Amino acid sequence: MLKNYFTIALRNFWKHKIFSLINVSGLAVGISAAVVIYLIVQFEFSFEKFRTDNSRIYRVVTDMTFPGEQVFKNSGVPMPMPKAVRTDLTGIETASHFATAYEVKVIVPSTGSQSPAEFKKQLNVIYADEFYFSLFDNYEWLAGSKQAALKDPYQVVLTEERAKTYFGNMPAKDIIGKRLVYDDSITTTVTGVVKPPNEKATDISFKEFISMATVMTTGLINQVGGNDWGSINSSSQLFVKLKNGTKPEQVDAQFHALREKYRDKKAQEKDDTKHHLQSLNDLHFNAEYGSFDNARQAHKPTLYGLLAVAAFLFLLGCINFINLTTAQSAQRAKEIGIRKTLGSGKRELVFQFLSETFLLTLLATFLSIVITPWLLKIFSDFIPPEVTFNSINQPHVWIFLLVLILIMTALSGFYPALMLTKFKPVTVLKNQMHAGTSQTRKAWLRKTLTVTQFVIAQFLVIATLVISKQVNYSLNKELGYKKDAIGSFYTRWNFFSEKPDNRRIELMEKMKAMPEIEAVSLASNSPAHGGGSSTTMKMNNGSKEIELMTETMNADADYFNIYKLKLAAGRFPMQSDTVREYSVNESFVKAFGFTKPEDIIGKFIIKGNRQLPIVGVLKDFHVKSTHEAIKPLAFASAQKSSFTVHVAMKPQVEPGVWKAALGKIEIEYKKLYTEGDEFEFNFFDETIASFYKKEQDIKRLLNWSAGLCIFISCLGLLGLVIYTTNTRVKEIGVRKVLGASVTQIVSLLSRDLVSLVLIAFIIASPLAWLAMNNWLQDFAYRTNISWWIFAACGISMLAIAIVVLGIRTIGAALANPVKSLRTE
Amino acid sequence: MLLNLKGIFKWVNVGGNRVFLLKDIDLEVKEGEFISIMGPSGSGKSTLLNVIGMLDGFDEGEYHFLHESVHKMKEKQRANLYKQYIGFVFQQYHLIDELTVYENIETPLIYQDLKGSERKAMVADMLDRFNIVGKKDLFPTQLSGGQQQLVGIARALIAKPKLLLADEPTGNLNSKQGEEIMELFRQLNNEGVTIIQVTHSEKNAGYGSRIINLLDGRIDNP
Q1: Which of A30, A69, A451, B64 is a plausible cystine mate for A314, CB 3.0–4.6 Å?
Q2: Mutation target among B10, B12, B107 for the A interface, most CBs of A within 10 A
Q3: What integer pLDDT is reported at residue A676 of this predicted model?
């Protein structure tokens, strides 16, 4: 019996090829989108889940509150804290302390036949204590043991991969005892080789483990904050595993007392630092505390957004399917009537149609697997590199697909099946049931579904337009400075050296002589930058004393010229070796309680035991993206602490001029900085554009989603119009005989469906306006939602609908009535 | 006695008025009869046939088929009844265009829950009998009117019904094809199948043993 049904189903598809194709493609796109996004979301949410006891593992993080109620979040802890945690706190089963190292130089000393090998910038190297491998116990030990490996200073454990890099194919047990030299000064012995777990869903992917004892007993500790409880460096990380039954709040409550016991109360009376536990599962998502240098984080709102997009596309595919199937159902009415007279019961008929739907859905799924690689490319901005086409070949994905197919079959198949089986055989056979009767022509369900499709599509189009507008606004707004033809690069900044290092000044002299260069300047960061340094500043504004966190920047006289920063009052700071005076921005003036810029000139900023005058006020400019409000900022001239060189280039007379100029600078740079420092030049306008990378990605995603939604909706529209036109062939013939023109017939046929698109527009517009207004609140500086966005969307949707309809209606209107009116 | 209609009324409400399709029909049919129902257009012939075939209901009266009260049955029971005993032949053949001749004939058997091998045997027999074995894989659109009607009749007979209902079976055929069909009916009747046909043609009516005339929904007694 099933075979009979499938045979008929296939023959039906073949008979109405275009129809079936439309149906199947819409569904396939929906399924593909659902699968891809399922893969992404499932992968991101599975991070760290494989670790033993992952619900009991936490990271200790730090919050520092500064004057002005600004809270700084740091994922690290003071260096002496882990030891205290281990001895003093209750409820903790294991605590592991490690410090991340940045771009370490490794030398493999020569052994007999082999010459020494040098690796300049190794990543994923950490200093780990002896408890690391107990807390993260998913490592397999190929040589050495976790009990002994990191107990003493100057020990190192390698992963299998690193061991291969340094020692080739030497068997693991032979590597034990070999030496490695780090940063030219630390000689270590290999005490273990491990194989890390195969899971890709993790951010903790370190490859070399030097013993923490090495840091504690050498001067290295000063690079990460020293033994000071008041200093927090984010490379110093503390992970704990709680005892069974201990709640994180119980541990959180103990941190304050711990700090009070150990910190230096003379340096600071009131403790402005708090610690709390961050769950291991939060590591991948929490951008405030960040993850590790080379680990990528996921953004939960974006993931939810992706889920919404997938749901939309899937929904649209299903809606299409229901619509087209029910529309076609009247053509099957005759067959149903006959089957009923031949003795079929309702159940058998329902089963027949459900199995047809199932077959169609199966076909759509196969098609969707073919489409998936293409979709992966579209969403590539959002896809973690570990998710590829092969990720489909996992059991849970197959189960997901099966559930999807069953849901689709039930959703899309049941309604048509039930509707069809209600026909009375007699009415069908007497041809009283023709497709144009009230039952199918009114078709409220179909109309509602079509409207829903277009509401979704138009919503997305409006959203895309608004986001584009905002991004353009952000990029092109009067930012307060010049941004093109300017770039900068860092020069080496040596803490410890007593001898002054003036190589950068020498370099600048050489650059001034180059014809392509307009001007050079020595300063700290460019006007808009990602990070920054802030400090507290105190001022007496006449009525009271105010203390606020202020961002500070260093700049020489040329800086303001290069970036074309403007003054509101007073002057720029005079060239100086160290900080002598300040020029502040307008926000600074307001924040400290002064009304006019002129009022603050001549007043003093209190820093420690010095009083420094304000000599000028700059007009506000955007230090960060337009997401953030402009904050108080103070410029000073301090050549001794300025290590970034800013360059203004003359306009390019022909392409390649700038590239050549940069090449020349690099040569001079390398001549002076013989330590092998890399020359990294960043163009200012690219830096600014990168602030909006997230929005650009979202914009791209929305473009594609809107496009796909429109595509599916139009498919649905096309299917519907083909159907209604086919069933009204006779009516069209009669009307033509009575004198109707082609235009009149086309508008007759299109009228209903066009009005659906208009209704969708009316519904979608306020919804989109609300949502976009909400989204724009995220930006301190935003564009407005203009009326022409809505007009553009509505008109373009209408145009598309009319064109799609025209494909069929014009053909129908031109048909010869003689042919249409011939009785069968 | 095969079936018995007593006081059957059927009407529709148009506006506020009642329009009668069937008025006070009394009919008794014995097994082995060959009945022709005749009458002008709109007299209710097809309606009567549909009522007898349980494809349509009625508003007043009693209908007994093989001593069972059809009017008291639920739809499922009724379906089982006519599935087993009644075969219907339509004027427009009403074959399923997407199925081959073989599959069309096979379809009623599928709803009777017969095994595949049994079905195969029965369909093969039927094809043989009507001499259309060579056409079994063709689709209805590839056959002539007469051949399609033949298939329709084969389909109606495959389940070995006691009663064959035919609604103007030769209406869309030319005279020669019509004759062949009527001869076939005579043969079937001789084998014991009760036949009730609706027809316009006096000639066709002549093949039967009894004629019933309908006028405006009533049986017109001669």
Answers
A1: A30
A2: B107
A3: 67
